[in-house]
Structures are given as structure tokens and as C-alpha cells.
Amino acid sequence: NRATYKNKWGYLVSKGDDELEHRKIAKGILGRNLERNEVVHHINGKRDDNRLVNLCVMDSKKHEQWHGFL
């Protein structure tokens, strides 16, 4: 059972280190830290759905374009 809480923006946060869980998961899968311009996007828009199939790493410009498209 993961020790997390939901912050005021609806993201799950790891209690031990106060890190956003979706970013922690992405870093673990990639085996590296995220670059400054990288964003972990929730594909289905649900900020608390951190399943691997729902996470996509993209640069911040592409992320802004994606949300502009929607």
C-alpha cells in the first residue's frame, strides 16, 4: 500500500518525500531524473490515475500545444 495523499490540485503526492507520484514513477521507469522542460502528462486527464498506461513524458512546449488542441 503506497503512502500518498492528494494535494489541492488533485495530484497524488508521496508522503515520505512530498514528491508528485506521477513524476516519481516516470523517473523510475526512465532510470533518470526528468529534464527541466519535461512534463509527465496524464493521458485521460485524471490527475490521480498514475497507471503506466496513463502517463506520458513530453516537453513542456508539446504539453502546452496538447492542451491548446483540446
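(ticket continues) Second input and output from the same batch:
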Amino acid sequence: MGNITLPMIFQNGMVLQRNQPICVWGTAPKGSLVTVRLAGEAAYAVARNGAWRVYLPPMEAGSGYTLTVFAGDNTISIEDIAIGEVWLAGGQSNMEFLLRDDAEVEEATQIDCAEIRCFEVPKIAYAGQENDRDYSEVGVWRKAVGREARYFTAVGFYFAQQLNSELHVPVGIINCTWGGTSASAYISEDYLTGELRPYLDRAREAQAKLDPATELDRYRNLQHTMDNMPFDNSMSNLAPIRPDPEMMASMSEMGELFLSRYSPFRPCGLYETMLKTIVPYTLSGVIWYQGESDAAYADTYERLMQRMIACWRALWKAEMPFLIVQLTSFEEMMESLDFVPIRAAQERLTKSCEKVWLACAMDAGMRYDIHPKHKRPIGERLALQALSKTYGKAILADSPTLEGAQREGDTLLLRFAHTGDGLVCRGETPQTLDVSIDGTAIETFLASVGDNELCVTAPEIVSAKTVTVSFCQRPYCEDNLYNSAGLPMLPFVCTIE
């Protein structure tokens, strides 16, 4: 009789979701009766075509449990299980960014907390890659104890730490990320239709130019080179990076193989090789930090995210919440990038898609480093959104958001929601404001904040046909306006006639 198997994520030290049916699945010989036991509860299934799935009843938070799976004479036991809150951390390098590279790593790892745990989904882009790279340090559940915490996603760590502190239950983070990836890498091909079809078309055009006989070997060699190229992610760039000849050669090869059949950057690839390996592990929701790699296609980014969210909710058969990081202020690392359109698309997404909320990170950015080194405020702001929107805490979790405006003589009064006890300017005057009168920018104006209003005053406003005030509409800028909870103001453009 054959063996029973479970997905890799079912390991000692795992965290299971509380207060929801707990899904357990795997393989067993066809026709086998499978019994799953946890915390005095049991569920049963018959393996159909070798696959089985059960749902254990909802359970309260706790730890120290053992999950046992029986089929015939075969038994699997998984120990040291915690039951609490489970969140999937998805996206590209800023979510992938490890706590070991964070500016506050020494302080953050002073506090051991075995109730905070993280599982990193192995970065596999094609079938068989597990034999081409060293995966010995991933694909395990780690606890935030000692040096183990250094291998958590930094944003996920600070998010989990805040939830654990407020909810007093274990928190598990599933890290499903790959640096440099588009959101299109994490979606089923069935969802890339209509205006999203070009994502597939571009990949097919690129793949048609590659020789199938050498494509895999070329990609393996490139991956080996990239894996062994020294790069200290903990360093802060004071100026743009100028690639050396070796890096330039690798970048040229990467350009040719970027959408290869074996590349993690191809559309739909990581959906198959990473995401589906953890579906339908029971979750509370998703935290998402991504968009940098979709900056060139900002006009379709809102639609892409709508479809990706729909795809994931269909996979899990649940309307799970998505908490999204709005991209930070940034200008150039190796090339100039403009995230202004992506930021706007991310905010629109919160209005066009149910149960999607935004954490503003405009004040956390670095001019010449796409990877901000202080991830604590980002993780904690995501946690505020979770505590407010998912767990029903009566707290201020949203950034100040433009609500309306009116003109009074030489003054434009802009009114904001989510200000708490009032707007606060950290500095002598609001920064990164641009004012245009009838389409022409003016250099001299006064700006101040009070209660829930931003006041902009200039003599030209009196007779103007239109006045436009823009806030943080530059790739790199300073956001120094906050609400009473310390959350920075969302970028905006306001035009009054």
C-alpha cells in the first residue's frame, strides 16, 4: 500500500487559522479512508483518484497541538501546532525583504516570541527547479525566537508582532513572494483576458525568439550567476547604482530571458509553481506589497489587481480581505521610475474592489533605494487596517483622504476624512504641494493645516477660473502631513473651478 502525503506547508510548528473550518489535504492510495485528528476533533475522507481533502471544525486559539493523519497502516504526525491568525504575505522584493536587512533588526530580535511564526514558500519557477538550487533554508515554519526571526519577511514580522500584541493569539505569516515580479505572475491565465491579454502576448512573443533546445540551460546559468552575485540589501543607497560590466552582462541576458518559459517573471508562472502549493490553506487574509514591476503598465494595473484578487478569492472560495501597501516615494536606483500613476491606481482599487484597504507608505521611501530600510511603520500600518477592518477594533486606521474643497476669496480650503483629532504638519509648512492657476504653476503661496482642513492661499486664486492643488505627485517627495494617529496623508490632485 502506498504512502499518504501532505503539502510542504504542513510541518512541525505550523499555525492554523482559528474560528474557521481548517482545511487539510493531501494524497493517499486510491480508495483509502483517511482520518485526520486535531485537538479532540476528527474528520474523514476517501481518497478519490489519489487525492483527499477534509475540513476540521473551527477551533479557538491555542498552542501545543498535534495533527495526526491516518490511512491504512500509514500515519503522519505533525507536532507543536499553534492555532491563531494566518495571513499570506504576497508581492515582490519589498515584501520579500528579510528582517535581517531591516534598519531595526537588532532591536526587533531582542524580543523572542514563539507565537509569531513564518513559512516561506520555496521560490520555484519551473518544474524541477527544486533540484537546481539549494532550498534547505526555506519551506519550513520558523519562530520569532533568536536568529530565526531574521529570516522572516520584515513587513510580515512587524505586522504579525502588532497583531499578536493586540489580539493575544498566535500569528502565522505565509511568505509567498519573488522580487521583481509583476502581479500577472500570480494569476491564472483564464483571468488575463480583454485589456489584460497583452501580458500573455508579450510573453509569447518573447518566448518565440528563444531556442527551446538551449532555453533551460541558459536560464539555469543565469539563475546561478544571479544567486551568487553579491548584493547587500541592508545598505542604503546614497546615489543611483551604476552597474559594473559583470552586472551589465547579466542584465542583458536577463532581458532576453525575462519572459522565458522558465522565468519567475512570466505571466501565470508563480501562480502554478508557488501559489497553488498552499491553496486552500485556511487564511484570515492577504497583505500585499507590489507594483514596482508593473509601473510601465500603470494604466491596466487596477484591472490586473481586480482580476488577481478575484482569482485568489475563487481559489480559496472566500472573500478574504486584501491589505495593500501604497508604493513609497522613490526616484531612481538603476533607472528612473515614476510610481505616481501606480499609487493612484492602488487607491482607486480600494474604491472599485470590495474588502481592499490601503496602507500609505509615502513617508517611508528613499530617493535612490527602491527598498526602504525601515519596514516597521509599513507592517504596523497594515496591522492597523487588519485590526480595524477585519477584527472590528474601533481605531483610526486610514490615512487622511481628500473629501472635498471649496474656494473662499484668495483661499482654497481642502477638507479631509480620517483626520482623528486633526491634521498635523511635521515641519514648518506642508511639503510637496504644487499649485496651478488656470493651468500655470505658481511658485508663491501659503499653506497651513488645522483640524481637518488644508488651507492654500494666493492672490491669484481670487480671479482664477480653475485652481489645481497637487500633493505628492512626484516620484520622490516629502509627505509631512499626518492625522492624529501618525498616518501620512494620501497623495491627491484637486481641481476647483
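Agent notes: The first strand starts at residue 15 and ends at 17. The longest helix spans residues 212-227. Closing as not reproducible unless the customer responds.
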